[in-house]
Histone H2A
Amino acid sequence: IIMAGKKYHQNHRTKKQTISRSTRTELQFPVSRVDRLLRQGHYAQRLSFFTPVFLAGVLEYLTAKILDLAGQEAHSNRKMRITPEHVGKVLEKNRHLYRLFEDNANPPDVKKPKKSKK
């Protein structure tokens, strides 16, 4: 005699926990969100599975590069925090980054420090 619940427990397997594409590719940027935004934007009729992974990787690389250079800029100014001014200076100084962002509708607002009267 087999009890009613026993058969279910013998065939029931534990479900594997799903792993996000960002975790699988070891990226910090959300691959699923990039995929969703690409599909909602109707940039192409068809998208490869690897397209959002590649784009998330490129975005992560550019962000890391800009933040690294902005950190060096802040360090050279003896500051501990990166400010938008540091990022703007980096984008102005680096010609490749400047060309990449020159058509941006909202360019970084770089303010020159005012000399204080003491």
